[in-house]
Amino acid sequence: MILQAKNQLTLQEFLNLPPGEGDITYELVDGQASPKMSPKKFHSKLTRALLNLIEQCCEGKGEVCPELAVALTRRGRDWMPIPDILYVSNERLPLDWEQEGICSIPPDLVIEIISPFGFKSSQSTETAKTATLSPGQTFGQMAAKAKDYLDAKVLRVWVLDSKARSITVFYPDAAPQTYMGEELLTDSLFEGLQFTVEQVFQKAKIPLDAQ
Predict the structure, then answer these.
(1) End-to-end Cα, the chain, rounded Å
(2) Average per-residue pLDDT for the chain
(3) Strand, helix or coil at 198?
(4) Residue 167 has pLDDT above 50, yes or no
(5) Beta-bridge partner residues of 62
(6) Distance CA 177, CA 210 (A)
(7) Judging by beta carbons within 10 Å of its beta carbon (0-12, 13-18, 19+), is residue 129 exposed, middle or buried?
(8) What is the Cα–Cα distance from 29 to 73, expressed in whole angstroms?
(9) CB atoms within 10 A of CB 41
């Protein structure tokens, strides 16, 4: 459930909160600590497949991290989401990067995965309902989150829709573009990077009939 505070939490107040129990981590959204549920196997396998693709292309050019919280602003308030993957180029790396903690600047790329495969069974139904943009969220909700990322100066947002087997690329200065099947995905942020969505699912070993 959302941890309600009497007043809107600032980023520092949020960071000072005790850690969540079990496999629940919290994001700062609209001044409140909101849970993001830990994904199941297929979601994790897709994350690893994308992580490997980005790492191979960007070796020596920046840092790629899964599930790293990032300090941003959203509608004038502190916001700390935890994207499935983020990439920060060497040109953007902050001075405090080598220190333990959150990512303190907007990354070049954020990747979010919409998974229909459900939550870990250890979580209650009520907790799953109140989780923000965890597995099971709709494309429309994730598209709205992508806009929030872009407004916060993230350069690019990729949204992988597991059910549709697609990746939609959101740009700050152009309409989003969706890739499916054997369409070749390229991005000007990453020189030499090209792959198809099906290659991602094949690397993750997720069959067409997966539910």
Answers:
(1) 26
(2) 81
(3) helix
(4) yes
(5) 89
(6) 25
(7) exposed
(8) 10
(9) 12
Calpha distance 14→32 (Å, rounded): 8
Structure tokens at 128: 């799953």
Tokens of 14: 């949020």
Question: Are 115 and 144 contacting, i.e. CB atoms less than 8 angstroms apart?
Answer: no
* Residue entry with tokens 């941890």: 3
With cut-offs at 50, 70 and 90, classify the pLDDT of residue 148.
very high
As a whole-number percent, the residues of the chain with pLDDT over 90 amount to 51
Q: What is the pLDDT of residue 210?
A: 64
Mean pLDDT of 145-170: 96
Counting beta carbons within 10 angstroms of the beta carbon of residue 68, is it exposed (0 to 12), middle (13 to 18) or buried (19 or more)?
middle
- Residue 206 identity (one-letter amino acid): I
- Which residue reads 């690397």 in tokens? 203
Percent of the chain topping pLDDT 70:
75
127 token code pair: 């907790």
E-strand ranges in 67-154 read 72-74, 77-79, 85-89, 109-114
Q: What is the pTM of this model?
A: 0.78
